């Protein structure tokens, strides 16, 4: 069980995991239930926008040719022959020196080819006539049919997350049923005999299980659904049984803990028992070096570290891209950006390190502020992090003002390309 | 009804709204239901972290004094007297030239004051003895009780959004019940006789209602709960009745549409009918100039424009800070940053404009890319926006590379200070 492990690079590890990527199936839901989903099909316009020539203001629709000679010294009275609230149309044709009162969003009546804003006319005889004293161009103040979007246009690509703007488009184009991706179901098992439940009092040598709850939130944030199988001790048979059950019921499995080389860390043996193929069991990074991934009949089994920080980083680097790809993202990888380090970070290290921190913005620059102790077992700084700085192995640390590589954690866009630490 | 309106600045408008800000009440939920909530109380550590002196590695616990003379040329054999899996403690005391095998996370046994990593020793007699040939300092490879967090420390402040890291802390410190803020209930009414339902086919002069669905998602994103009262036509009595009902059942009300100066836009009259105090009915900005806000017995009534873009911007500027403050945020305002414009934006305008777009990152710089047409009635660009550029009124537009003010839309942090366009 204590075999020698050969670390692979983060880049190789992500590449290996992504060899087993899959796309999800279609799941059509009612419009009212589509929040927080990912589009399985692109959104296409079922009608032009605007759907008809309409008025962008409250005003009066006229024929522009009737205003050709008008100026502040030369006004004409127009007869108000009708009015059009938004949502109504009329069949009357606007004739010479006639006008129709029109509300914002109202359809331009036949005959008219321009609108004058309400504020620019004066009313006469209780509104039966209005006086205009300016020249209007043909088409002035008209929002033309299809000028925003033509019918049939693909507006939003598949894989897009449904934010408020996307929701508005679905409504506009009549998607009373919305084709979503069926999110992956991810089985989650916490292992370790040191683990207490949240409600249990602390006992000597024990800690409360926090990893599975954290990972559960990470899964939801990334776009997956969680099947939680609870926390179990270090009994090998229990773990094998639960893993087999989860394999039948889920698309992927995550275990937390049980991946170190300690004698009670059974995960490698579990993989052997169920005939899963171990893809790697050591990654050249800190935290998270013991991250182990296996595959069984096309399903990935992620063995994340029992250490909270390592568990967190392992999830974001290896599991998130798999979930995003499943949901039809074209940019499944964690999004890398360059940022200026906002204070010295002198610590040298032979391993590639992922340092937690916060992005800050200042006068057009992006800054990275390392958060907290960043000891591998310090959970307190995870809550405040929205980014991870990458310190390549072998460097001597960094100075304030250095441009560093940073991965964004709270980002829906992602990256098409995997971040490559060799660059 | 067509009274003259006096526009106030965006700054004045936000300030006016925030005079009526309120904090939410406490709502204690089970740990498993706390996702997506905001903390009513700070998280405090109920125990030190680590809770006891523990081993960060798989290895052997020893007395450092026994290694004082060791080197690669001078080794000693240590007797392995016991072993400690994570989660267990032992009572045996480690004596001279004795050792206890210890797993990652295991409690340091009495007598020992250092740990040597498993990889650095050689085993003898089937593990009954190990050979050590290096000197260890007192405390070496020990994670000391409380070194990350002392008991009683406030770890996370009230008002914090529960992200995966916060969830981990709640679990670690035994929050089986979590004190959350009771989110505001926001009544939502869509008005306009031109509105069709999502499932209805398009008809002449009509459009499908998209605003209330968009705003509904914006409310959830900002941290509120929605009571949707449906869409109604332009009938004054219906609107008055529904508004009164919503006032009884909700903490705030949002209506979409009905705020223009068109004769069928009844909102000002609704406010008069129910004796609400109109705070303002015109803001010097585009889109969203007709945004109207009233107050009745301390409850705010937001009248957002029926135009999708105006509605969207009005929500983010005026409603979001009220929701965030309610949820105990210290940074309720939309977060402003400086960004470099990534292309010319020549359009001059007498009004302060909010231009939709995307943030981009490049070599440590933040760029702003305007998205789509940005016509006030173009809904298509809202879906792709994660930021709004502010163009102050009276400017002649901007050149590529100019540093511009940008408001972040998909941000949980916010800003303590309101963005001030006078600066």
From TrEMBL, chains A, B:
It catalyses: adenylyl-molybdopterin + molybdate = Mo-molybdopterin + AMP + H(+). It is an enzyme of class 2 (transferase). Its EC number is 2.10.1.1. SUPFAM superfamilies: MoeA C-terminal domain-like, MoeA N-terminal region -like, Molybdenum cofactor biosynthesis proteins. The keyword Secreted does not apply. Keywords: Magnesium, Metal-binding, Molybdenum, Molybdenum cofactor biosynthesis, Transferase. Its cofactor is Mg(2+). Signal peptide: none annotated. InterPro entries: MoaB/Mog-like_dom_sf (IPR036425), MoaB/Mog_dom (IPR001453), MoeA-like (IPR038987), MoeA_C_domain_IV (IPR005111), MoeA_C_domain_IV_sf (IPR036688), MoeA_linker/N (IPR005110), MoeA_linker/N_sf (IPR036135). Pfam families: MoCF_biosynth, MoeA_C, MoeA_N. GO terms for molecular function: molybdopterin molybdotransferase activity. Residues 187-325 form the MoaB/Mog domain. Pathway: Cofactor biosynthesis; molybdopterin biosynthesis. Gene3D superfamilies: MoaB/Mog-like domain (3.40.980.10), MoeA, C-terminal, domain IV (2.40.340.10), Molybdopterin biosynthesis moea protein, domain 2 (3.90.105.10), Molybdopterin biosynthesis moea protein, domain 3 (2.170.190.11). Belongs to the MoeA family. Catalyzes the insertion of molybdate into adenylated molybdopterin with the concomitant release of AMP. This is Molybdopterin molybdenumtransferase. It comes from Rossellomorea pakistanensis. The lineage of its organism: Bacteria, Bacillati, Bacillota, Bacilli, Bacillales.
